[in-house]
Amino acid sequence: MLKRISVDQLRLGMFLHELCGSWMDHPFWRKKFLLQDPEDLRRVRECGIGEVWIDISRGHDVEGGLTEDEVAVQVERELEEVAEAPTRLPPTAPRPAVAATESLTPCRAADEYGRAARIVDLAKQQVESLYADARMGRVLQVDGCMPLVDDIIGSVTRNHAALTSLVRLKTQDEYTYLHSVAVCTLMVALARTLKLSDDEVRVAGLAGLLHDMGKARIPLAILNKNGRLSDDEFRIMKMHPVWGHEMLVAAGSAPAMALDVCLHHHEKVDGAGYPKGLKANQISLHARMGAVCDVYDAVTSVRPYKGAWDPGEAVRQMAQWKGHFDPAIFQAFVKTVGIYPIGTVVKLESGRIGVVLEANEASLLMPRVKVFFSSKSDLPITPETIDLARGTDRITGVEPAERWKAEMLADLWLDGALPRR
């Protein structure tokens, strides 16, 4: 049985199942293990993670903590509250100017996938070229990125979820480049949820596109290592915000927001982040936005050392990481991607299993779903699209996506809109 406990309660002899935080922020990227080495215990306690999951069937137990069921109930209750609560900025953030009314016509996700796919292909080429310049020591041409950002804004304006969902389908080899595109897209969508001005939306998108440029200086053997990093390797990895900031300063034309997001997107509101260990209001609004967008895309992407989380699982895992994200920003992010983001596998009250096609504007708790399996008969069923807002069924829980082939799920939620990439 799994139990979530404070890192202060962790002792030798416990079986460490998982750390409650992004694997980008600690060196234990892959391995579950019995804590026997005092050095491993020290590293866990000092890596900036506040809570961990232990498996009490494979190691020592401790009084207190929460079971999986208790945590699941707590998280679902919090997400339901988010669905009903108004979007708000952190109290210390300045009130933004409301964005101008866009002339682009909104559309459904299925109608935007074709255009979004073309943007992804072009964006990959441009970002790959940008990284090549960085590795060669050339000055980055920041202004040349703005047409791409504008294309992404156009796609998000027509449908905020299509490009965000499509770019998740990147392969391991594409990750470095398309992660930048994904974070750009998420930053644009989140900025629009927060009703930032048009100019601020554009710069937020640019900041997302450039936030990880410092990784161009990290040796590929470390960047793509299939296993946990040594202390020295992790120190090198944690230098990428500083190196990226240096590159953007040298470019001479990067906006202040892009510089700030690049340097501070790994800071945490509890002060356990890096490179400066900033806390709460010391971290800018835009860097707090960048922190959430960066982690969400990372954990929903396939990496050499881990599989991708289902987007619904990612939202629920991130909701547990107290002290990591600004609560108001995270709530706005959940409203942006959805309580059940596109691609989430859900179980319905009828016993049918389905994959989420699109959020419902009337309620984040009642998306459009394509059902494909019956848990009662344990057999596939003819796929059928259901709008849960019509009250014919309801979601009772999120299902583990690993039970199903990722390709099959993508084919279902893409709903035949375009060939698989």
Automatic annotation (TrEMBL):
Pfam families: DUF3391 (PF11871), HD_5 (PF13487). Residues 154-349 form the HD-GYP domain. InterPro entries: DUF3391 (IPR021812), HD/PDEase_dom (IPR003607), HD_GYP_dom (IPR037522). It comes from the Bacteria. Transmembrane segments: none annotated. GO terms for molecular function: phosphoric diester hydrolase activity. CDD domains: HDc. This is HD-GYP domain-containing protein (C-di-GMP phosphodiesterase class II). It comes from Sphaerotilus mobilis.
